[in-house]
Amino acid sequence: PDPPPDPPPDPPPDPPFHTTYAIFKPRNVVSAVSVASSSSPQHATLTDVMNTAGVPPLPGHVGRLDFETSGLILVTTDSLLLRAVLGWPEVLEEFGGAPVTKQYELLLAGKHEVGSIALKRLLEPITHARGNEIFHSDAAMTIEHLGSFKDAELAAGGFRFIDRIDGEEMQAEERQNLAKLLEPAVSRATGNSVPPFVVFDGWCTRVMLTLQQGRHHQIRRLCKRAGLWLRHLRRVAVGPILLGEMRPGDVRTLSVEELAALSEQCMPLR
């Protein structure tokens, strides 16, 4: 009799399953992850945010946001995706990818017109020293003027409460101090009521910047060089991934479609 046919080859193993979260990092949260919850009782971390949201904490956050910066940050178990989104040249080259852009919404003190000299300076590259090294950072790719408005409370210090979730008790003293700043004073010379001083007469301006790098506090350095007072900074997009309707402290798992769109940009040959 004929010998029995060879058994069919084993099917290829399934690709490893990875999880990627989009997190709305609140203001006053440290961009750090750990196995356990934060070891420092002073400041919450991304791990604390994930625990509070009721999802299993993950390692591997894509870049950092300053302590006072809020907005979108990705956390993933996929180390290759992490390196690609961070823009590692060898990963982008191997998988035919391009650097992932990031979008930021800036709240600036003062009234700044469309096309002002100060705003135009954000579109110029910047060089800075860090330790013994010199770094050359690209300019912002685009700038969009979102509007100017008057808000005395926001201008006087209310910007410090934007996107915070640390509770009313922790903010109570700060809010009391802000309320005092907004109280009318009494002139010693005339005894008349004098309106409180509010910087730039309460004017604020919002703009949107698109960057390809966003390293070493790049936006803060650009604003300082341009003479702009940056009051709050929020990242609203990482490539095709949008902050959307998320609220500070929210955590969600990226959809298959979002992951495909992100991979298509930074490593299409994977």
Characterization of this structure:
It is a single chain. The chain is of the alpha+beta class and 270 residues long. It has 8 helices and 14 strands. It has helices at 46-53, 79-85, 89-94, 117-120, 152-156, 168-181, 218-226, 256-266; strands spanning 20-25, 29-30, 44-45, 70-76, 102-109, 126-130, 133-137, 142-150, 185-186, 193-194, 203-211, 230-238, 241-242, 251-253. A hairpin with a 2-residue loop joins strand 12 and strand 13 (241-242). It is elongated and about 115 Å long.
Quick recap of the structure?
The protein is α+β, with helices and mostly antiparallel strands. It is 24% helix and 26% strand.
How are the SSEs ordered, and which strands pair?
Layout lengths: L19 E6 L3 E2 L13 E2 H8 L16 E7 L2 H7 L3 H6 L7 E8 L7 H4 L5 E5 L2 E5 L4 E9 L1 H5 L11 H14 L3 E2 L6 E2 L8 E9 L6 H9 L3 E9 L2 E2 L8 E3 L2 H11 L4
Parallel strand pairs: 2-3, 4-12
Antiparallel strand pairs: 1-4, 1-14, 5-11, 5-12, 6-7, 8-11, 9-10, 12-13
Q: Which properties best describe this structure?
A:
270 residues, alpha+beta
Structural class: alpha+beta
Largest sheet, strands/sense/barrel: 8 strands, mixed
Gap from first CA to last CA? 47 Å
The global form is elongated
- Beta-strand percentage? 25-35%
How much helical structure, as a percent, in the residues?
10-25%
User: How many whole angstroms does the radius of gyration measure?
Assistant: 24 Å
Strand segment tally: 14
Uncertain residue ranges: none
Individual helix count: 8
Mean pLDDT score: 88
Report the order of strands and helices: EEEHEHHEHEEEHHEEEHEEEH
